[in-house]
From TrEMBL:
Keywords: Cytokine. SUPFAM superfamilies: Interleukin 8-like chemokines (SSF54117). GO terms for cellular component: extracellular space. CDD domains: Chemokine. This is Chemokine (C-C motif) ligand 25a. Pfam families: IL8. Residues 52-114 form the Chemokine interleukin-8-like domain. It comes from the Eukaryota. GO terms for biological process: immune response; lymphoid lineage cell migration into thymus; thymocyte migration; thymus development. The keyword Ubl conjugation does not apply. The keyword Repeat does not apply. One of its GO terms (molecular function) is chemokine activity.
Length: 132
């Protein structure tokens, strides 16, 4: 009687092992697919953020005169794949940025003032550097 139970036990054990192997292969395949999807999602998000990092989405209505005095430089944002509106981005002394409408008169005036200030600084520095 003991001899008859032995092959039956072996069959059950082999069935269990085959089931376990199949489950392991299935689990490994699912894990690989999940890992691939996560990496792909991360790359898509990372690439998408690159194009929207420095884009203005809306304009400030007006900057007070006291705020305008602190503007040290500006740059132009053009309409391209990631940026939907044209804008002039003013950078203040402490690094804060303001997005403005380039068609506004006060924006054009502020750009002229910054250009004038920059040209004065360039002349001053070139005179003093050439003396030494």
């Amino acid at each position: 009687m003991y001899q008859r139970d032995k092959p039956d036990f072996r069959k059950k054990f082999e069935f269990f092992l085959s089931f376990f192997r199949a489950a392991t292969v299935d689990f490994t395949m699912r894990f690989n697919v999940l890992f691939f999807m996560l990496v792909l999602s991360y790359l898509c998000l990372a690439l998408a953020q690159v194009s929207y990092d420095d884009c203005c989405l809306k304009y400030v209505k007006k900057m007070g005169h006291s705020t305008q005095k602190h503007a040290v430089r500006y740059r132009e944002q053009k309409i391209d794949g990631g940026c939907n509106i044209p804008a002039i981005i003013f950078t203040m002394r402490r690094g804060r940025m303001f997005c403005t409408d380039p068609r506004e008169k006060w924006v054009q005036d502020l750009m002229k003032r910054i250009d004038k200030r920059e040209s004065r600084n360039d002349k001053y520095h070139s005179r003093h550097l050439n003396r030494g």
